[in-house]
Amino acid sequence: MNTILSTLFIVLAAGFVISRFLPVKGVQNISGKELKSIAGKKGKQFIDVRTVGEYRGNHMKGFQNIPLNELASKANQLDKNKEVIVICQSGMRSKQAAKVLKKLGFQHVINVSGGMNGL
């Protein structure tokens, strides 16, 4: 019985870890290099989902700071029909942010893979 429970736990844990790295359906991923070519363009919403402290320490010009833990409650400040580009430090939180935005009905969501580390 313990072996079955242990195996089940390992399978569930592995599934959870793997799911964190799978792409989010309907979200485009771009590199830091690709971001630089579209940064500052009109008609796009640039969101940095890092903490306020991280954002103050270093951020890209034109990005608005909405920390990931506040994104769902502040999403009404964004236009669901305009492209939203999300960035964080490594690309993990921005991926989560992209998932949140898609669930809230945002149509065009782009995640910067590698985040600020990839610039």
Can you describe what's shown?
Residues 40-118 form the Rhodanese domain. By secondary structure, the chain is of the alpha/beta class. The protein has one domain (26-118): Rhodanese-like domain (Oxidized Rhodanese, domain 1, 3-Layer(aba) Sandwich), CATH 3.40.250. 44% of the residues lie in helices and 17% in strands. It has helices at 2-21, 32-38, 52-57, 68-74, 92-103; strands at residues 27-30, 44-48, 64-65, 83-87, 109-112. The longest helix has 20 residues, at 2-21. The mean pLDDT is 91.
Largest sheet, in brief, is: 5 strands, parallel
State the CATH architecture.
Answer: 3-Layer(aba) Sandwich
Overall CATH class: Alpha Beta
Structure class: alpha/beta
Strand order in the largest sheet: 1-5-4-2-3
Give the helix proportion (percent range): 40-55%
> What global shape is seen?
elongated
Our count of domains comes out at 1
Mean pLDDT reading? 91
Rg result: 16 Å
Number of helices: 5
Give the end-to-end Cα distance, rounded to a whole number of Å: 50 Å
Relevant CATH superfamily: Rhodanese-like domain
Briefly note the CATH topology name.
Oxidized Rhodanese, domain 1
β content, as a range? 15-25%
Q: Total number of β-strand segments?
A: 5
Q: Low-confidence spans: pLDDT under 50, at least 5 residues?
A: none
In N-to-C order, the SSE pattern is HEHEHEHEHE
